[in-house]
Design a protein that fits this description.
Elements (H helix, E strand, L loop, with lengths): L15 E2 L4 E2 L8 E4 L6 E2 L2 E2 L1 H6 L13 E6 L2 E6 L17 E10 L7 E8 L17 E7 L2 E12 L4 E9 L4 E8 L11 E5 L2 E6 L3 E6 L4 E6 L21 E6 L3 E8 L10 E12 L4 E5 L4 E3 H6 L1 H4 L4
Protein name: DUF1618 domain-containing protein
Pfam families: DUF1618
Length: 320
C-alpha cells in the first residue's frame, strides 16, 4: 500500500498491511485508523463503531466478524465486513454474508505522537439480484483506483460453464455512478475448470488469477478477455509438498515497483526438507510472444532457497 498524499511527510510510505482488520468496541470520532508500523513489522487496520452505525440497513449492527481487506491500491482499500457469526474473511463461500466497503482519503492523524492515518468509508451498494448475477465470492473481486477524476472501480469476474461454451460475467461498480453494471464476455478456453485465486491491479487494468494456470485480463476498448499463461512450474503440481489445493500459498502474482508484473513460485518437493524450498521470481516481459505463441516470462536469475534467506543478515537482523 502506498499513499501519494503522504510522500512529502513520510520518507517511505510503504507498509506491510495485514489483510484481517480488527474491530474494536471503543468509541472514537473516526471511522478507520491505521497505525503505521515500520517494516518488517505488520500494520493493522482498526475499524471503529462509527462505521457500524453509519450503515444501519446493512449487516453492520453488532460486532463485525474479522473484517477482511480484499484489495489495497494507492491508499484505497476494499474491505468485506460481516456480522457475527459470519466472518469477512470467508473466502470460499459463494455469496457470503456481509458488505463491501471502500476506505479512502487516508490522512495523517495529528496529536497522536506516532505515524497514524485515518480514513473515510463508502458502502458499496448491494446489486439487484433479479437483474444481475449474485456475488460469487471474495476471491473474484478487485479494486482499481481512478485518477481523472479521482475515484475507483470495484469489479468481479465470474467464469461460468454453459452446455456448449464457457463465458465470463463481468460486473463493475464505479464510484461516480453508485450502481452495478454487468456484461457477458466470451472466455478463452482455459481448460480445466477456472479456479479464482486472486485479483491484481496492473497497467490500469484488473487481472484475475488462477494460480495453477494463468491470468484473465479484460482488454479495452471493447471489453474482451485475453489469457496470459503463468511460467511452467519447476515441479509438477502433483509432486509438490503442499499439493494443488494450497497452491495460493506458494504461487503469488503482484505488481512490483509500480511498473512490473512479477510471479513468485515457492516450491518444495515431497521428500525435501523445508530449507530446500526454492524461491523463483519471474517478470512478465510480453503478454504474447509470437515465437512462443504465449506470454513470455523471464526470471533473470532471481532464484534462491529458504535456507539462504534465513541465513541472510536482512532476515535475521529484524528478527523475522
Amino acid at each position: 500500500m502506498e499513499s501519494s498524499s503522504l510522500s512529502a511527510e513520510l520518507p517511505d510510505p510503504r507498509i506491510i498491511l495485514g489483510r484481517v482488520a480488527q474491530h474494536v468496541a471503543d468509541e472514537d470520532p473516526g471511522e478507520l485508523s491505521l497505525p503505521l508500523a515500520n517494516r518488517p513489522h505488520l500494520s493493522r487496520l482498526t475499524i471503529y463503531p462509527l462505521v457500524i452505525r453509519q450503515y444501519p440497513t446493512a449487516t453492520y449492527y453488532g460486532n463485525a466478524g474479522h473484517p477482511y481487506i480484499v484489495a489495497a491500491n494507492d491508499a484505497v482499500l476494499l474491505l468485506h465486513v460481516s456480522l457475527n457469526p459470519h466472518a469477512g474473511l470467508n473466502l470460499d463461500q459463494p455469496d457470503p454474508e456481509g458488505n463491501l466497503v471502500v476506505a479512502w482519503d487516508f490522512i495523517p492523524v495529528d496529536g497522536t505522537g506516532r505515524r497514524e492515518l485515518s480514513a473515510t468509508t463508502k458502502l458499496i451498494a448491494n446489486r439487484d439480484v433479479d437483474l444481475l448475477s449474485q456475488f460469487s465470492g471474495v476471491k473474484s473481486v478487485g479494486l482499481l483506483p481512478l485518477y481523472a477524476p479521482a475515484g475507483f472501480v470495484v469489479a468481479e469476474l465470474q467464469v461460468v460453464e454453459q452446455p456448449d461454451r464457457r463465458v465470463a460475467n463481468l460486473l463493475w461498480f464505479r464510484s461516480v455512478e453508485d450502481s452495478w453494471n454487468e456484461v457477458q464476455l466470451a472466455c478463452p478456453d482455459v481448460t480445466p475448470k477456472w479456479i479464482p485465486n486472486d485479483v491484481i491491479a496492473y497497467d490500469k487494468k484488473l487481472w484475475w488469477a488462477d494460480l495453477t494456470r494463468g491470468l484473465l485480463n479484460p482488454v479495452d476498448p471493447s471489453p474482451h478477455l485475453s489469457f496470459v499463461n503463468l511460467p511452467a512450474d519447476l515441479v509438477a503440481l502433483e509432486d509438490r509438498h503442499e499439493g494443488p489445493e494450497r497452491i495460493d500459498t506458494r504461487h503469488i502474482v503482484r505488481m512490483s515497483g509500480g511498473e512490473l508484473l512479477r510471479f513468485v513460485d515457492v516450491v518444495r518437493k515431497h521428500d525435501e526438507p523445508p530449507e530446500a524450498t526454492r524461491v523463483v521470481v519471474w517478470t512478465l516481459e510480453s503478454m504474447f510472444d509470437p515465437a512462443k505463441g504465449r506470454a513470455r516470462w523471464e526470471h533473470h536469475q532471481c532464484r534462491t532457497t529458504l535456507a539462504a534467506i534465513w541465513q541472510d543478515a536482512s532476515y535475521s537482523g529484524p528478527a523475522l
